[in-house]
Predict the structure.
Amino acid sequence: MPTTAGEVLTNYLAQQLAGLREQEPLVRQDLPDSVHQMRMSARRLRSLLATGKKFFDDGAAVSEVRDELKWFSGVLGAARDPEVIHQRLRDLLAQEPDALVFGPVARQIDEEMESASAAGRRAALEALDGDRYARLVERLQDLVTLAPLTGKAAREPRKAMLKLVAKDTAKVLRRVHELPDTPGSPPHGGLAPAGNAHDAGLHEVRKAAKRLRYAAEAAEPVAGKKAAKAAKRAHELQQVLGLHQDSVVARTLLADLGSRAPGNGVASGGGYGIDASSFTYGRLHAKEEALAASAEASFWKAWKKFSRKQAGG
C-alpha cells in the first residue's frame, strides 16, 4: 500500500507507461484496438501529470512532457478517429432505404475514410520509429523513477489524492457553468449547428470529465469506493459526450463530402448544378443532428445525477 500521495501518483504513471510500451509492438502489427489502447495510456499520462503537477519539483519539465504527449496522442488520433467515424457512417447509411440512397455515397465515404486511416497509420509508424517518441519515453521514465518530488507529494495519500479528485470535480462544474447556452436544456430550445460554441463547450466538459475520471482511478488504491464512484460518474459523462463529439465530427465530414460531390458548383447554363448524392448526404447530416440532440439529452440526464451525487458526497 502506498504511504505517500507521490507514491500513489508515480505508481499510476508507471502503470500507464508500461501500457504504452506494451501496445507499441501491437500497433506495429496493426492489431485491433491497439492504437486506441496506446492512445488511452498516453491520455492518462498527460492528464495525471496535469492533476499532480504540484507534486513534481520541476513543473517546467512536466509541462514539456505533457506537450509531447499531446503531440503523440494527436498522431494516434489521426490513425484511430477515421476508423470510428467510418464505422459510424457505415451503420447510419445501412439504415437508409435503398430508394433514398443516390449516387456513390458509400464508395465516397469508404474512399475518404480509408485514405485518412492509411495516412494516419503511416504517420503513427513514422512517429514510433522517430527520435521524438524515443525521447518522450525516456523522459516519462525519468519522471516516474528519478524526478524529485515536492513536500506536497509526501502527504498522507488518501486525503491528498481525494483533494486532487475534488479539484478536478470543480473543473467539471466550471466547464458546465461556462457553456454558452442555459445549462439543463438544449441550446435555444432546439438544435445547434455542428461546430458552434455550444458544441465546443460540451467538448471541454468531456475533457474535464476524463481528467476527473483518471484522477479518481489513480486515487482508488488509497481512497477505495469513494474514488471508484467518482470515476464511474465521470465516465458516464464522458461516454455520452463522446457520442456527441463523434456526431460533430461526422456532420462536419458529411457537409464537406456533400459540398465536394461531383456536379456541385456552377452549371454550364448558369446557376448551380446539384449532384443527387447531396440529397443522401443531407439526410445523413439530419440524422446526425438528431443523434447529437439525443446524446446531449442523455448528458443532461447524467449531469443531474452527477450533481445530485456530488452534492451528497
Remarks:
- The first strand starts at residue 265 and ends at 266.
- The two ends are 25 Å apart (CA to CA).
- The chain has eight helices and two strands.
- The beta strands are 265-266, 272-273.
